[in-house]
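> agent: user asked for a holo structure of the chain below bound to NAP. Plan: (1) validate sequence alphabet, (2) canonicalize SMILES, (3) run complex prediction with ligand conditioning, (4) return tokens. Step 1... ok. Step 2... ok. Step 3 dispatched.
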Amino acid sequence: MLRSPIIDDYRLKEPVVGELPGSRALVTGGTRGIGAAIARHLSDAGARVVVSARSRGDYDGPGHFVAADVATADGPNQLAAEAATHLGGIDILVDNAASQTRVPDGVLAMTDADWLTDLNGSLLSAVRLDRAVVPAMIAAGGGAVVHIGSNAARLPQPAALAYASAKAALATYSKGLANEVGRHNVRVNLVSPGVIETSALAARLQTLADEAGTDLDTARRQFMTTFNVPLQRPGTADDVAALVTFLVSPAASYLTGTNHVIDGGLLPTV
Ligand SMILES: NC(=O)c1ccc[n+]([C@@H]2O[C@H](COP(=O)([O-])OP(=O)(O)OC[C@H]3O[C@@H](n4cnc5c(N)ncnc54)[C@H](OP(=O)(O)O)[C@@H]3O)[C@@H](O)[C@H]2O)c1
């Protein structure tokens, strides 16, 4: 069987971006948006992929689907076991699934339940899944983990502060995990998207349009104006997937513990 280039990466003389033949990848939240694009890009690069979400919905992309709720205490363990059994091991883990609780009245109106929903969905989901997957990567000689964070961690909005806080904690956790497992040839990186065109963004724009009593195009224009993105457009799921595919590839073998912002220049600070 072909040995995964993830494990042998630093020994390759001329690493090729995006070439992942024989690698085995698990992508959470892989049925829509950014996760579906990541699954497609990894598969195109030659990886075998397990895609997970709470339900398959109308997903018809590549890979083997496993139903799991990663926001629960047991979901990540069950998912890790099923994915490892199907693939024969996991070399690449993309912790992408998340959802966002919005409370229009702001953070002081957020309940414990709101906070726990986002801490479970955007932080503990990754912590638990890593705990179930990374020890086997260490035992196998290496692996690559990518956490999908958010620019919201650095641009917190009052109506979604639990989500932003969970993503900020995810950034700190990513760095600490990278520090701990680097000596085992396991790389951990964070990808922080800005405004990306997905079903989550479409739903948010619809809410904004409804709240303002305007149409979707107007809401979109106002939204983009608010953020003043230098590249003048939202990102696409493919933009993010290309970055993730690079990060898990042999070409990125010296990258770990870093936060890769992909936002068209949206964050105004250095
Ligand atoms: N879109 C943006 O502008 C943007 C910006 C910054 C960061 N991000 C981050 O990028 C990632 C993907 O976002 P997206 O916009 O692609 O979202 P999306 O279009 O809403 O897709 C979310 C995916 O995650 C799954 N999912 C959600 N909760 C889950 C759970 N508890 N257990 C298992 N699967 C779950 C969904 O499937 P089910 O609902 O069937 O479970 C779906 O496959 C998230 O981490 C998000 O925070 C997105």
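> agent: step 4 complete. Summary for user: The longest strand covers residues 186-193. Residues 112-140 form the longest helix (29 residues).
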